[in-house]
Write a structure and sequence with these properties.
The complex is a heterodimer of chains A (448) and B (104). Chain A has 448 residues and is α+β, with helices and mostly antiparallel strands. Chain A has helices spanning 15-27, 68-79, 108-142, 146-151, 153-188, 198-228, 232-257, 262-291, 370-383, 394-397, 432-447, and strands at residues 3-7, 30-35, 38-43, 51-55, 82-88, 91-96, 297-300, 305-308, 327-336, 341-350, 357-366, 388-391, 401-405, 412-416, 420-426. In chain A, the strands form 4 sheets. Chain A has a 7-stranded antiparallel β-sheet with strand order 9-10-11-15-14-13-12, sandwiched between helices. Chain A starts with a strand and ends with a helix. Chain B is 56% helix and 14% strand. The chains are: A alpha+beta (448), B alpha+beta (104).
C-alpha cells in the first residue's frame, strides 16, 4: 500500500486548518492513519470525510498512545459520532462515523481557553526556560570574555544560533498573540475562532523548518571553514555537535515511533538529555587534551602522569637567561577568526626534586579593526580593576600605552599598539634587549 | 469552599446541571440534555467533558462512582443553589419581558 508522510509540526492554534487539510487530503484519496513525527497517510479511494482535530488538555505533551485520562473523553466522543483515528501529545484526531454529528466542541470560548492553556503549557520550556538559559549563557559565557568571543568561531557560531533561536521564539510568540487578539475580536463580533487556510498552513510549516535548515547550513559552513583554516579543535567540535543533534533526532524519532507509555517517554527523554550532556562533556575534555596541546607528550613521573607539550615558541626561557631543568613544558594556544586572533605562548621548566617551577607566558592579540582591539584592552583592564597603572615604559616599547600591575606576586604587563596587544606575566623580567627581541620576533611578523 | 465562578449559567451549563439532579454518567447526560431541551440544545462531548471537570472543581457536582472508565456524577447542594439562582434570574427576565411585551 502506498504511504505518504508529512512532517507534523503543528501548533494547537492550527487545529481547524489541520482539519481542513486532512479533509482535503481524503478527497485526494490520502487517508490519515497515524501520527508520530509525521502525519502518515495511506492511499485509498478518494472520499469525503469529516475530521475533527481536538486539543485534550488533560493529555500530556509526552503522550504517544491513548492514556487512561483520555479514554473517557474518547468514549464521550464516540457516543456523539466521532471515532478516534490517532492521538499525539494533546492532539486527538477524530473522524465522523455518522452524518452531521454534534461538533466535539460546541462552546467556542471553552475551545479558546483550552487552546491557550495547552499552548502555554507546551511552550513553557521553549518560551521561558530556553531564552533564560540562552541569555544567561550569552552574557556570562560569551560576552563575559570578549577576547575569546571574537577570536573563536565556536562562540561566533553559538551567537548566530542564539540569534536565530530568538527570532524563532519571538515570531512564535507574536503569531500566538495575534491569534489570541483575533480570537477575542471574533468573540465580540459573535464569530468563530480564527483559522488559517491550508495555504497559510503550508507556508507556516516551511517557516518552521527553515531555522533548522539555516542553522545546520551555518554549522556545516563554520565546521568546514575551521578545518580548512587548520583550527581542528573548533572544526571537530562543530562536527560533533551536528552529529549529536542528528543522533538525538533519530533517537527521538524512534522513541516517538515506538508509541511507548507516557512514563517511559518521559524517562527516555530525560535519559537522552543526560546522554547528550555526557557525550558533549566527554568529547570536549577529550578534544581539549588532544587538540589544545601541540605535540603532546605523556610524562610519567614517580607519582603523577601529565601531558606536556614541546612547542616551538618564539621566546623561550633560555632566551631570557633561565636554564632548563629536568622537565620542560612549552605550549602554544592559538585561536583565530577573520575578526581577530589571539596566541598564547607558555614555557616552563621544573624538577620533581625541588618542586620549583619557573615559567613564562605571553599573549599576542591582533585585530585589523581598532575598535575590537580597544574593546579587548578594556576587558583586560576590567578583569583586574584598579590593579593596572600606566607605565612610563611606552617609549621603550614604541607602543601607545603600557600598563603594569601593582601587585608584586603576580606581575603582569600589557603593551598596547593600534592593532595588537602584547600581555605577559610570570617570571618574564625583561631587559631592554629582550623587549626588542620580543618586538622583533612577535610583533613585527604580524605587522607585516 | 467552592470558588464563585458561575455568576450566570450558559444554556448548556443549565441543562447539564438539570440532567444531574439524578445521578448519571457522561453519555447519559448528553442524552438527557437533548431530551430535556427537546433537541434544542446539543452539548459537544469535548465541551461536556470540560464543563463536568469545572463543575466538579467548583463543587457544583460530585463524582458518585466509577465503573471502568465510566464516571457518574450527581448535583451537590451548591449546584442546586446555582440552578435555583439561575431559574429565578430567568423567571425575573421572563416577568420583566411579560410586563413590557405582555399587552402586545
Amino acid at each position: 500500500m502506498k504511504v505518504l508522510r508529512k512532517l507534523f509540526l503543528y501548533d494547537y492554534t492550527e487545529c481547524d486548518a489541520l482539519k481542513e487539510y486532512l479533509e482535503d487530503m481524503a478527497l485526494k484519496g490520502w487517508i490519515l492513519k497515524d501520527i508520530n513525527v509525521f502525519l502518515v497517510f495511506e492511499k485509498r479511494e478518494p472520499q469525503k470525510l469529516a475530521y475533527s482535530v481536538e486539543v485534550f488538555d488533560k493529555a500530556s505533551i509526552f503522550d504517544t498512545k491513548l492514556e487512561k485520562d483520555a479514554e473517557e473523553y474518547v468514549e464521550y466522543c464516540s457516543y456523539a459520532g466521532w471515532k478516534l483515528v490517532c492521538n499525539f501529545e494533546k492532539f486527538h484526531i477524530f473522524v465522523a462515523t455518522q452524518e452531521n454529528p454534534v461538533p466535539i466542541q460546541t462552546d467556542e470560548r471553552i475551545k479558546y481557553q483550552t487552546i491557550v492553556k495547552s499552548t502555554l503549557k507546551r511552550n513553557v520550556f521553549n518560551w521561558v526556560v530556553l531564552p533564560t538559559i540562552m541569555t544567561f549563557n550569552f552574557f556570562i559565557g560569551i560576552l563575559g570574555n570578549f577576547e575569546f568571543f571574537i577570536t573563536n568561531y565556536f562562540s561566533l557560531l553559538s551567537t548566530l544560533i542564539i540569534i536565530l533561536c530568538y527570532i524563532k521564539i519571538g515570531s512564535d510568540i507574536i503569531k500566538f498573540l495575534i491569534w489570541c487578539i483575533k480570537a477575542k475580536r471574533n468573540f465580540s463580533r459573535g464569530k468563530k475562532l480564527p483559522s488559517y487556510s491550508i495555504k497559510d498552513l503550508k507556508r507556516i510549516t516551511k517557516m518552521k523548518i527553515a531555522p533548522f535548515i539555516v542553522s545546520l547550513c551555518i554549522m556545516m559552513f563554520f565546521s568546514i571553514f575551521s578545518i580548512i583554516n587548520k583550527d581542528y579543535f573548533t572544526g571537530m567540535h562543530i562536527m560533533l555537535l551536528i552529529l549529536v543533534i542528528s543522533l538525538v533526532l533519530v533517537i527521538s524519532f524512534w522513541i516517538l515511533k515506538s508509541k511507548l507509555k507516557r512514563f517511559d517517554n518521559i524517562a527516555l527523554q530525560i535519559l537522552l538529555g543526560f546522554g547528550v550532556a555526557g557525550v558533549i562533556i566527554f568529547f570536549t575534555v577529550f578534544s581539549m587534551l588532544v587538540f589544545s596541546t601541540e605535540n603532546p607528550k605523556l610524562v610519567v613521573e614517580e607519582n603523577s602522569i601529565s601531558i606536556q607539550g614541546e612547542s616551538q615558541i618564539p621566546i623561550t626561557l633560555e632566551d631570557i637567561g633561565v636554564k632548563y631543568k629536568k622537565y620542560k613544558d612549552s605550549d602554544i594556544d592559538r585561536s583565530k577568526t577573520i575578526f581577530a586572533s589571539s596566541t598564547t605562548y607558555y614555557d616552563s621548566t621544573y624538577d620533581s626534586l625541588d618542586g620549583k617551577r619557573t615559567e613564562i607566558s605571553y599573549r599576542v592579540f591582533y585585530s585589523p579593526y581598532k575598535f575590537i582591539t580597544k574593546k579587548v584592552l578594556k576587558s583586560y583592564l576590567n578583569l583586574c580593576k584598579d590593579r593596572y597603572i600606566e607605565d612610563s615604559d611606552a617609549s621603550i616599547w614604541d607602543a601607545n600605552m603600557v600598563y603594569v600591575s601593582k601587585e608584586n606576586y603576580a606581575p603582569s604587563t600589557i603593551v598596547v599598539y593600534d592593532n595588537y596587544i602584547l600581555s605577559y606575566s610570570g617570571d618574564l623580567h625583561l631587559r631592554n634587549e629582550a623587549r626588542k627581541k620580543i618586538r622583533k620576533k612577535l610583533l613585527l611578523p604580524i605587522e607585516q | 469552599m467552592p470558588r464563585e465562578q458561575f455568576q450566570t449559567l450558559s444554556e448548556p451549563m443549565y441543562y447539564i446541571l438539570l440532567a444531574l439532579v439524578e445521578e448519571c454518567c457522561g453519555v447519559d447526560i448528553m442524552k438527557k440534555v437533548a431530551q430535556l431541551s427537546q433537541n434544542r440544545i446539543a452539548v459537544g462531548p469535548g465541551t461536556l467533558y470540560t464543563l463536568l471537570s469545572r463543575f466538579e472543581d467548583n463543587g457544583a457536582i460530585k463524582e458518585t462512582k466509577t465503573s471502568g472508565r465510566k464516571r457518574s456524577y450527581i448535583i451537590t447542594e451548591y449546584g442546586i443553589e446555582l440552578l435555583k439562582r439561575e431559574y429565578k434570574r430567568l423567571q425575573t427576565m421572563f416577568n420583566d419581558g411579560k410586563d413590557v411585551l405582555g399587552g402586545l
